[in-house]
Amino acid sequence: MITWNNLDKLTSYQELKKTESVDLAAVMAGENGAERVKNYSVPMAEGLAYNYAAKKVDDTVLAALEKLAEEAQLTEKFEALYNGEVVNTGEKRLVLHHMTRGQLGDAVVADGVDKRTFYVEQQKKIAEFANKVHAGEITNGAGEKFTTVVQIGIGGSDLGPRAMYLALENWAKKNDTFKMEAKFISNVDPDDAAAVLNSVDVAHSIFVLVSKSGTTLETLTNESFVKDALKNAGLDASKHMIAVTSETSPLAKSDDYLAAFFMDDYIGGRFSSTSAVGGAVLSLAFGPEVFAQFLDGAAAEDKLSLNKNIKENPEMLDALIGVYERNVLGYPSTAVLPYSQALSRFPAHLQQLDMESNGKSVNRFGEPVDYVTGPVIFGEPGTNGQHSFYQLLHQGTDIVPLQFVGFKNSQIGTDVVIQDSTSQQKLCANVAAQIVAFACCKEDENRNKNFEGGRPSSIIIGEQLTPASLGALLAHFENKIMFQGFLWNVNSFDQEGVQLGKVLAKRVLAHETDGALRVFSDLLNI
Ligand SMILES: O=P(O)(O)OC[C@H]1O[C@H](O)[C@H](O)[C@@H](O)[C@@H]1O
């Protein structure tokens, strides 16, 4: 029997609060520190490892976290989710994104169809379509090959697919699987669509309209923008556009598209990178095999999330440590710092994934919670961030837990030896140095140059960022966020907080305003 209790009602949470906090600078110093770095590591899928040596935990805290995981029934709740229970209570929906990459438990039949079969069918349809585009069997109106794919979408229909595309672009070029360049239009700012359209050859571009709901104002506006551009170029828009949407959306039955591929309401936008939402653009850009490898990596990581032992379940452990940092140690935010230029938009994707999922003040029954929930997430790739906001991270008044990601090898492999080291070695040296600099102290008589240490971080280390390791990395964060939602007893799968702004914007556009809204409308010349 599963019981959904608030975090502060759990005995193990009260016990966790009583544990003595770990002096990170002390435990990371000397040989003890070296041992910690060796031991505090959990293998992930696809050669990745989650290292938490520089977190403020010790065996006592870890034992308390293990009890918390048990009492909060994290494994049981995950099981309920992938077996098709209505875990998204707010919207009364199942939560099935794991099923786009495998089947962890029972067959789930919803709306009269087996859901795994449905997702696999969509993947197959996309693969066939992409192969035909690459082979020149599906062409533009003049019978010429498409050379560019442009995705139109926003939020989950943009951030994940865009981050994944950027993560694999150079890898695909290096490994001869690069098929087409991809571009993305998301913002309703007309300069976004105009600039992208100016940068592509529209006559040889295929546009992927992605909207799960089929009603998002920005996306529909950008669709019209693109259709106008196609018309102005004397082209038939329906020969240049495909759609990815849910079967119940207004776009599903339209004749305006060359083809339509489907996801459904059981996959939240921010969890949709492994569905047709990511599948169409990534299969067109890199080929369906690359997308399949990405899915396999995610599926392999999902399997690790089933483990009851927190030391063998990197997602659960990461989630528990995050809740400890947020609720017991009181840290307000988390920085995501990938030492990989290919992951330049990964922090932006995690912003949505984490903050839209767990930025909630009421529990899953709609009752206010008496504790803090999701942290503010932000980040940039290293080493760039070091020359930007790390000052605050090192010496600011808030302690910000850090999530580093690093790879031993670059994707392209072109490198240079300057002062006895390669650029890749310099990149990796920096991330190692930062972990220790944050954790350990360096005393200086000049207070301005003093480092107090005790600033926690973890790092995910991999061999190389590949389709499979990217899939594992993505699934890690998706599952971590899911476990945290279970711990906070919030519904991580709805996003009512985005509605009010949309309603008011519509009112502004209809000139139905008064008070402050009217004056702001005037100031902005609407
Ligand atoms: O895919 P769509 O239905 O167009 O939705 C796009 C995005 O818009 C919404 O406002 C939500 O906050 C996001 O969760 C969603 O991903």
TrEMBL record:
List of catalytic residues: E356, H387, K502
Catalyses which reaction(s): alpha-D-glucose 6-phosphate = beta-D-fructose 6-phosphate
Statement: the UniProt record of this protein carries the keyword Nucleotide-binding: no
GO biological process: gluconeogenesis; glucose 6-phosphate metabolic process; glycolytic process
Function: Catalyzes the reversible isomerization of glucose-6-phosphate to fructose-6-phosphate.
Enzyme class: isomerase
Pfam family name, one: PGI
Gene3D superfamilies reported for this sequence: 1.10.1390.10, Glucose-6-phosphate isomerase like protein, domain 1 (3.40.50.10490)
Statement: the UniProt record of this protein carries the keyword Cytoplasm: yes
Pathway of action: Carbohydrate degradation; glycolysis; D-glyceraldehyde 3-phosphate and glycerone phosphate from D-glucose: step 2/4; Carbohydrate biosynthesis; gluconeogenesis
Keywords for the protein's UniProt record, in alphabetical order: Cytoplasm, Gluconeogenesis, Glycolysis, Isomerase
InterPro entries: G6P_Isomerase (IPR001672), G6P_Isomerase_C (IPR023096), Phosphoglucose_isomerase_CS (IPR018189), SIS_dom_sf (IPR046348), SIS_PGI_1 (IPR035476), SIS_PGI_2 (IPR035482)
Intracellular or extracellular location(s): Cytoplasm
Principal location class: cytoplasm
Identification of the protein by name: Glucose-6-phosphate isomerase
GO molecular function, one term: glucose-6-phosphate isomerase activity
EC number: 5.3.1.9
Family, per entry: Belongs to the GPI family.
Gene giving rise to this polypeptide: pgi
Gene Ontology cellular-component annotations: cytosol
